[in-house]
Design a protein that fits this description.
four-stranded antiparallel beta sheet, extended, alpha+beta, disordered C terminus, 14 helices, seven-stranded antiparallel beta sheet
């Protein structure tokens, strides 16, 4: 295996984890790596908009203080400082508006990174001809139809329910005498609790009363205890509580209730972005995932690079080809895609790669996939079972035949990020000049998913390259998105839609064949 491929295999189990008892990676997911790493500029993703308004704090803290605020902070007399003008206040409003707009844009760009559906492969590829993830989920929850149960409670359970109803209400639907007494003594108990709490609050405001509370408070607590005992003994408390619990515990079919809940969750998560429309709120944790200075980074060192990897993987292994380059490549400037990659003739003898990596989790409060595990529902229409997912790794999108299509076989749940990449190899004549030429003019070079361009250097091209004794290499600053962890959806739905649907009745009323009467006046 190529050294670069070895790194990617290592990252699979480091990012997802390994069961120590079986030495295997968990089932139900797959990892995809980008052929060319995607730079994550901090300015594009920092401080995204949130429904809690927490993004406003960072906007306010970034605004320079007015002279009067600075004077107070420095202990000066505000009378000797110029008053804030109306134009300055207007500037503040414009600054806040611009900051909020930037937060919305950061949220939108973050959401766009999370909304694609990927082909199940080790190479990052957006599934062709498919909708976005949030559109697909909207269609699923609105097309899902619960199947009415064909069973009912047995006679013993029915009798228990009727007995519970009889304790609480008369056949006419009015409250029973027992329930009226229950409410009467319950209110009496709560009155004594409120009286005790008010007196204690009064004592808290007077040190002398608080000092006497252990003595005087006993009377109020005695009232509470007595009211509780009356409720228990004369208010039929146990009987009413038991009847209420029985009736409250009557169930609803899980599929039916989860369909309704999934719709509510999606609707409640929608936010409006100007000129874009409604999209479901999505965020990534940790919140500073785009920053080199965020928490959660781990090191991939020389010892990892040289170690053996003996991990069993549930998905296909990462192999060369299919978009991955074993050696160095160059790519055009301005975010060129993988089709513009050109192999470079650079000797990579004794190659070594070091970097920091982290995993950022995508949080979608609106995507409640619990429904997909249940059996008692189908998709309205002539959709077969398993048209959302068949639950296996080898399934692929099919968009030409509606009866074989896959709505949502998987969903990206995490990003694999890299920073401070350092790639070194044995010195060779002209190799550094080859790379410098490729990176000039806004281009970039890379190996595997690791990509370096002039923008990664804080100064110039020279800052991107390193020279060590008998070795040479590249330093890649900044954060890069290099891979994705996707969760495979469970096989769903488990019922064929056509088994619960029928053709519309062809004998329904049809338009009359009689000629229409014209309202046009005709002259004789």
């Amino acid at each position: 295996m190529s050294d670069v491929m070895k790194v990617l295999e290592d990252l699979k189990y480091k990012a997802v984890g390994v069961d120590p008892t079986t030495n295997e990676m968990p089932e139900g997911y797959f990892v995809s790596f980008r052929p060319i790493g995607l730079p994550i500029p901090k300015e594009d993703f920092k401080n995204p908009w949130t429904p809690t308004g927490s993004n406003l704090k960072e906007i306010l803290s970034s605004k320079a203080k007015h002279n009067s605020e600075l004077a107070q902070a420095e202990g000066q007399d505000p009378a000797n400082v110029d008053v804030v003008s109306a134009s300055s206040q207007l500037d503040d409003m414009q600054f806040m508006s611009a900051g909020i707009g930037a937060s919305m844009q950061a949220f939108l760009q973050t959401f766009a990174l999370t909304d694609s559906k990927l082909v199940m492969d080790n190479k990052f590829r957006v599934a062709p001809g498919t909708s976005k993830l949030n559109d697909t989920w909207f269609a699923i929850i609105n097309g899902a139809n619960g199947i009415a149960p064909d069973m009912e409670l047995n006679d013993e359970m029915k009798e228990a329910v009727e007995e519970a109803k009889a304790v609480l209400m008369t056949p006419e639907g009015d409250s029973t005498r027992k329930f009226d007494r229950y409410e009467e003594y319950r209110e009496e108990y709560l009155d004594t609790v409120r009286a005790r709490d008010r007196q204690f609050a009064n004592a808290m405001s007077d040190p002398m009363k608080l000092q006497l509370w252990p003595v005087q408070g006993k009377t109020y607590q005695d009232d509470v205890d007595f009211a509780w005992d009356k409720w228990q003994s004369r208010g039929h408390k146990q009987e009413i509580d038991a009847a209420t619990a029985i009736l409250s515990s009557q169930g609803i079919d899980p599929a039916i209730i989860l369909i309704a809940r999934a719709k509510r969750k999606y609707e409640n998560s929608l936010i409006n972005i100007p000129q874009i429309g409604n999209i479901p709120y999505t965020f990534i944790s940790p919140s500073k995932w785009y920053s080199q200075n965020s928490l959660g980074w781990n090191s991939y060192s020389k010892s990892d690079f040289r170690s053996e990897t003996n991990i069993s993987n549930s998905s296909t292994e990462t192999r060369a080809g299919g978009g991955f380059n074993i050696g160095f490549y160059s790519a055009g400037g301005h975010g060129a895609s993988e089709e513009h990659k050109t192999k470079l003739d650079v000797n990579t003898e004794n190659l070594s790669i070091e970097f920091d990596y982290s995993v950022a989790d995508i949080q979608r409060p609106w995507l409640d996939t619990t429904l997909l595990n249940l059996d008692n529902w189908f998709l309205v229409g002539d959709y077969p079972k398993s048209c959302i997912s068949d639950g296996t790794f080898n399934q692929q999108f099919k968009v030409n035949d509606p009866n074989e299509m896959l709505f949502m076989p998987s969903a990206v749940t995490s990003f694999i990020l890299a920073r401070n990449v350092k790639i070194t190899w044995e010195k060779s004549t002209n190799s550094m000049e080859t790379l410098k030429t490729a990176i000039s003019g806004g281009g970039s070079v890379g190996i595997g998913p690791f990509r370096a361009s002039a923008s990664h250097s804080e100064s110039n091209f020279e800052g991107t390259f390193i020279n060590e004794r008998n070795r040479e290499g590249i330093i890649i600053d900044g954060v890069q998105l290099i891979g994705y962890i996707s969760t495979i959806m469970p096989g769903s739905p488990k019922k064929n839609g056509k088994d619960y649907m029928q053709k519309k009745n062809s004998d329904e009323e049809s338009p009359s064949n009689e000629p229409a009467v014209s309202n046009t006046n005709v002259e004789n």
